Amino acid sequence: MRKTVLVLGGLLLVAALGLAVFRPGEVAGEVWRSLHPNSLVGFGALIEKQVDPGLWVDVILPALQWPAWLVPLVPGLALAIAGRPWRRS
């Protein structure tokens, strides 16, 4: 389980590096829209209607304004730290 978390974190870090190199100036919303615009609209409607409209406005929309490389970097670092081997002193 720990290795799986570590590998997933590493893959997200590689994705963040790729976005930083190949799409350095784009924000996450632009990248998502360029890949699959209908899923972005559908996800927004799902969150607003099924979960909470405030979540879309206060949390997700600001996150879509982040640099594209930052979005996979944050969970990638969290998973890489959580998956690292712990040593007893």
Written account of the structure:
- The protein has five helices and no strands.
- It is mainly alpha-helical.
- Helix 1 (2-22) runs antiparallel to helix 5.
- The chain is globular and about 50 Å long.
- The mean pLDDT is 89.
Number of distinct helices: 5
Shape: globular
Fraction of residues in H or I helices: over 70%
- The total count of strands amounts to 0
As a percent range, the share of strand residues is under 5%
**C-alpha Rg, in Å?**
16 Å
Assembly type of the chains comes to single chain
Q: Please, what is the average pLDDT?
A: 89
Question: SSE order in H/E notation?
Answer: HHHHH
Distance between the termini: 23 Å
Taking pLDDT < 50 over at least 5 consecutive residues as the criterion, the unreliable ranges are: none
Structural class: mainly alpha
The major sheet is characterized as: none
Question: What are its keywords?
Answer:
single chain; 89 residues; mainly alpha; 0% strand
Chain-wise SSE layout:
Layout: H1 2-22, H2 28-35, H3 37-51, H4 53-64, H5 70-83
